[in-house]
Amino acid sequence: CKRVIDLHAGAITAHSEGKGRGATFTVTLNAMATSLLEGPVLFLESEPPRIKHIQILFVEDHEDTARVLGRILRNAGFDVSHAGTVADARALAASKRFDLLISDLGLPDGSGLELMRALRDAQGMKGIALSGFGTDEDVAASAAAGFAAHLTKPVDWDRLRAEIERIRPVENSAA
User: Fold this and answer.
1) I need a surface site. Which of 47, 55, 84, 148 has the fewest CB within 10 A?
2) Residue 5 dihedral angles phi and psi, to the nearest 5°
């Protein structure tokens, strides 16, 4: 426990009033800055990047992760549609044009890898993989499926934003 807590820059304390009296363990972890969840996400560059109105298909089955990351993406100005399964994502992709897929790889009814292959082949869609696993083999499998980036969870917002900026669809400068 101590090792995991240390990896998250947290702290653990223990307290007991003596033998047979039980013990209380308190774990303190740094929470995500709530400013990411409230109001617009601020960009530090001199000019805000032109990434507004990108249509993102966000596929994540973990409810809390989907809620928080979806809100962060929306607050950053992206148009986000959420699906919790491969089947729901395919249905959304059939009904609306998306610029970018951001998908968990482990889904209850299939794999984000299969979904990326299908959307890449059918629509030329680009994507960012989200996974709890980040070995060289995991990253290679994501790339082979068509993902332009592979991020491990918990997702670092600055890195995700940088990857979206890097692979975003090219805007028409005449527009």
Assistant:
1) 47
2) -65, -40
Phi and psi angles of residue 77, each rounded to the nearest 5 degrees, phi first: 100, 5
**The two structure tokens encoding residue 129:** 């993989």
Model pTM score: 0.72
Tens digit of each residue's pLDDT (9 = 90 or more) over 10-56:
888 899 999 999 999 888 877 655 445 555 544 444 344 445 579 99
Query: Position of tokens 């975003």?
Result: 168
155 CA to centre of own chain = 5
- Which strand (E) or helix (H) includes residue 5? helix 2-7
pLDDT digits (tens, 9 = 90+) for 73-122: 999 989 999 999 999 999 999 999 999 999 999 999 999 999 999 999 99
Residue 98, Cβ density class (10 Å: 0-12 exposed, 13-18 middle, ≥19 buried): buried
If you count them, how many residues does the chain have? 175
With contact defined as beta carbons under 8 Å apart, do 127 and 148 qualify? yes
How many helices, marked H, and strands, marked E, lie in the chain? 6, 9
* Angle separating helix axes 112-123 and 136-145, nearest 10 degrees: 30
Angle in degrees, CA 49, 50, 54, rounded to 5: 120
Helix (H, G, I), strand (E, B) or coil at 107: strand
